[in-house]
Amino acid sequence: MKKWVLTPDKYLKPEEAALLRTTLEDKALAAIAKKKKKPVRDWAMIDVALSAGLRASEITHLTVKDAHLGKGESALFIKNGKGKKDRLVLIGEKLKKHLKDYLSWKKQAGEAITIDSYLFVSERGPKMTLSAIQKRFKHAIRATNLNPRYSIHSARHTYGTMLYRNTKDLRMVQKQLGHSSCQVTEVYADVLSDDTQKAVNALYV
Fold it and tell me: With the C-alpha atoms ordered 184, 85, 17, 134, is the resulting torsion angle positive or negative?
């Protein structure tokens, strides 16, 4: 079987991810002041995609009880992920704080935060659909003037590449992303073109 290649148009560069985060956060803060909900939800939802590497299908099913944000806890529980497998995805302190703030905002905004309530609700139903998440991500990409080819799955690839760049630990990336095989995860080890470029340039010094 031919190995799939993760090309640069399928994941955001670190500076692009940072710009997307800043843009969405600014819009969310402005929306809170105007008592608008959609930008606040979108910022939290896309931050989960960028900072935890979840699949869009996993984001749609997240409930309040899946967010483990108490003392000594920093994780999202994924139930029935790809292959019907459960997993615990560890998250960083920044995302943990963001989600705690988001839950506080939901309560103040009158949205349900009972344990079985969905984290991200739609205007038309109890939870966001896959197509709705994709549309909101595309909207955010356009607002930030980034490559329109980026999709919500690009956020997952962005997380995978950045996590591997920081750790060089394929097993960790595999576990966090919920890949069934480390061979699937190896694509993230092949995209560090900046590191490769520095190495080949050094040959001529």
Answer: positive
